[in-house]
Amino acid sequence: MYPEKKEIITAALTPPGRDLDALAESMKLSRSELLEKIGRGLLKVIEVES
Fold it and tell me: Per residue in 21-36, pLDDT tens?
């Protein structure tokens, strides 16, 4: 899909941070593809005040 070869990276998440998996699934993406799109600026991340 992208011309560059993917590299394996590691990320440590708290249990609530694991909602990343649910977000990716809801978008019909893998966790890897979700992070790739965010990193490439193809998905915009907005901060929500808590």
Answer: 899 999 999 999 999 9
